[in-house]
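From the methods appendix. Each design record in this collection lists the tokenized structure first, followed by the designed amino acid sequence. Records were kept in a plain field format so they could be parsed without special tools. The example shown here is representative of the layout used throughout.

RECORD:
FOLD TOKENS (117 positions):
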């Protein structure tokens, strides 16, 4: 089971994806578009074009997990970065999943909530 603790690596795919994609297609996207290893201990987040849904895949050592969340009354706020991949902290992951605007989070001097990889 995944625990979203502070040591978890989280990567956000900036561009929208086709939400018919399942675990296999998303893991290929991690490898080919994000240039990361889908079978490490990280989570990979994908959003649809309307930004009201996210899919998260992760590898737990024996298989892939696929998690989906849909917001009913709002939209996910995606970072407007020039890079293809955005690295998030676990705190910003929790904020994103709560529907908060993670681009408006103010950084504490000792903690970086959003970083570009």
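DESIGN:
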């Amino acid at each position: 089971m995944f625990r979203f603790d502070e040591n978890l690596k989280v990567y956000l795919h900036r561009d929208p994806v086709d939400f018919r994609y399942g675990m296999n297609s998303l893991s290929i996207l991690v490898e080919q578009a994000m240039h990361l290893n889908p079978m490490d201990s990280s989570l990979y987040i994908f959003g649809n074009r309307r930004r009201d849904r996210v899919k998260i895949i992760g590898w737990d050592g024996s298989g892939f997990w696929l998690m989906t969340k849909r917001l009913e009354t709002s939209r996910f706020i995606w970072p407007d970065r020039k890079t293809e991949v955005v690295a998030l902290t676990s705190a910003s992951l929790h904020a994103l999943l709560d529907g908060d605007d993670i681009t408006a989070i103010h950084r504490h001097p000792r903690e970086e909530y959003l970083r570009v990889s």
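APPENDIX NOTE: The mean pLDDT is 84.
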